[in-house]
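User: ok so my PI wants both of these folded by tonight, can you help

Assistant: No problem, let's get them done. Here's the first:
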Amino acid sequence: MSGADAQLFERATVIENVRVRLSDHTVIESARIVLKGGRITAIGAEVDKPLLSRTIDGGGGTVTPGLVDVGSAIALDRRTATGPIARAWDGFDRYDVSAVLEALAGGVTTVCLVPSGHSGILGTASIVRLSPRADGGHGELVRDEIALCLDLGSGDTPLRRLNTLNTVRKQFTDAVERREALDIYEEDLEEYTTALKSASGEDSEKEKSEKKEGESGERKKLGSAADPPGAGTDSKVEEKKEEGPKKPASPPRRPDLDLILRVIDRELPLRVTAHRSADIRNAIELAREFDLDLVLVGASEAHLVLDEIAAAKATVIVGPLHSGEGAPAGEGVEGGPLRRSVTDLPARLTGAKIPWHLASGSPQRELWWRATRAVSGTSRDAVGLVTRGALSFLGISGRVGTGGRADLVIWSADPASDPDARVMRVFIGGRSVYTVEAGIIPEAPENPPRGEKL
């Protein structure tokens, strides 16, 4: 049976007795949701139940789209090597059930997995859905290598931070020089090909001429009387054949620099973790020098350099919000970069017309709580921030509602108004993957997961 036939005969799932919150301002009371083929096929207060469908009672809870974390290190092996060609997906432990459980318990269904490390270029980020795998474990790779991640080490001493910046700048400079070397090689190769064709053409004409002379009997005999003295075979000095064109040597393989060239070509954005205002300025200067698509991560002191961030047309990923009061003032990773942080950074970014998104930090289960705090004082929609907005930022279709992907969360109450609301059930691709009573449900898909067209 083909995949299309399997979807045709797949039973629909109906979630009823729920209120549906599609955004902060769009709520459907006493709704019914029909799921089939991994999509929402119908949603509303007067939706009919398909024949032979299975029904799930939502118990009067509130349904929201699955939450999306745009910056997560969930289930990552901290020992994974870092560098431009390192991939976050390679370090993902699909059997780390406790980490996945923590995320699902917070309503998170999709994460942008970012490589972890101390400082420097850490590797590329990956988009992962936390659905069960047919071959065991959890985690479906949606898209790989969506951004190159860099940490300027805001918790380090000034000297170490400067060394990190200089190292990164040299890597980008080396990539530019490699581009120049590749361009020169392409030019030399083209000249070589042209010369080779030309030489081949001349030899062909010579062969034709010699053949013609032989057939007409006009070829001169070596050592004849007509030849000048000393022109015989024994006295002739053989002329050295002219060497043909020499093929240019190709530059050595450098996948690390080739990856950086994709960032310079703006095929990938550069995500720079920089908390201190000085590090944010350094990130902006790096982006300006190489004309990069810049995303600032953390940016605890962004409020001190708002004009510069806006001028750089950078996007900010806000991390965990800190009060700034009582934070250690030392140079350590936890203290130094946060001593001047503010709780209303999202509002200040909004006022400066700087686009921003929200990452959970740790634990993932607090993403919704952080979203409701982050939108305070802004015009942003908390639901949209961590659903449609996050998906759009990651380059994935963020359609919510009929026709959209069936990644859903059933809450015990409306999370937009009740801080005690907790996740009761989670669906990914229309399949139940978590319940609060049983934890993770090891429900593998009936058919192997198919790649989604993005």
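One down. Here's the second:
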Amino acid sequence: MAKIAILYECLGRSKGGIEAWVYHASEELLNQGHQITLIKAEADTPQDSAPQGVDIITLKTNKKIPVINFYFDIINRVNQLKSILPQYDLVWARSYIMAYAASKVLGKDKVIYINAAPYSLYGRVSFKDKLKNVKRLFNYLPAVVSEVLMKIAYVLEKKAIVGCKNVFLSKARMDETLTFFKINKAKLSFNVIAAGVNTNRFFPNKLPVSQECLKIISVGRLQKDKNIQCVLKAIKKLKDNGIPVELTIAGVGSYENQLINLTEELDIKDCVFFVGRQDNVEEWYRLNNVFVLPSLYEGFGSVYIEAMASGLPCIAISNKSGEYSVAADEIIDPNINGYLMTEDNPDELYFYLRKLYDNPELILELSRNAREKTINEFSWKNTVEKLLILN
């Protein structure tokens, strides 16, 4: 059995996809008898940071003005990791900063960098767009600092990719990342290994959910690119056509107020419920019939396989047009365990939801298929074993 270190900035299974990945991967590794340590940078340690039996190390960080802090933080992590990482048989990193620092300590191809999506591509807002909202002269400085930091991030992220063995959660993100950084795939080590799902935690409701009302759930950070606004518009159309419907939205984020305002504008407050972040999200899945998240961007989309394991047909947007940065095509099989929208269109989403409401037996069929696919293709056992053989 191996001593394995997994590095990421923060922990907490309920925080989001990457944090949940770290939690469940370490849980499976622990079950297989490995010794696991999670190494993080943030001081916050939530109750759901790690399974019992997993060690946690928190790196010390310096707080300075942004550019200086970014530079010294990298050096600081490298220096601290020098005394920590050599004792481990395997080192996995889930962020480019951790991957870069670890590769500087251990050397080329000694670290597995598990990459969901290129931060430098999706974490940036163009300098021109920032300046549109600048009202006063002194506000230009933060915009300039942010742009400088993003350019530094681009350089470090590319060095992390070149210096590590790379694993991507989807082929779509791998191709996108290599294109963005202008990296020749043939010269480096690249693999696609999807995230897993705990099918013992996420499982279907043993009792049939009432079909008198179509119960829909969306789970994720409430950001504009998650496109919950499209769901709300489809709910409006269902309601206007006399379809009894309820939408549960689980998550928090910067776009929450705009979504709440939109429910008021559409007059659907009586059938839309914002329940915030839920540690027991698996129980919320089981209370619903369908999972919908027409996200315009997803590094992978662990919520889809969670919902599918819970017996929910899933509806997402396809990336076949090349317009959307999503990996739903690698998860959902249209007409078998869910549906893929061809575009960001509430009317198309309404069509699929109405079809499910009118055909309760179809929901049951898609539900069985969804559960079966997660068991066969998205188990954590398979994910972890594929990662272990890379070393």
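Residues 140-163 form the longest helix (24 residues). The chain has 14 helices and 13 strands. Good luck tonight!
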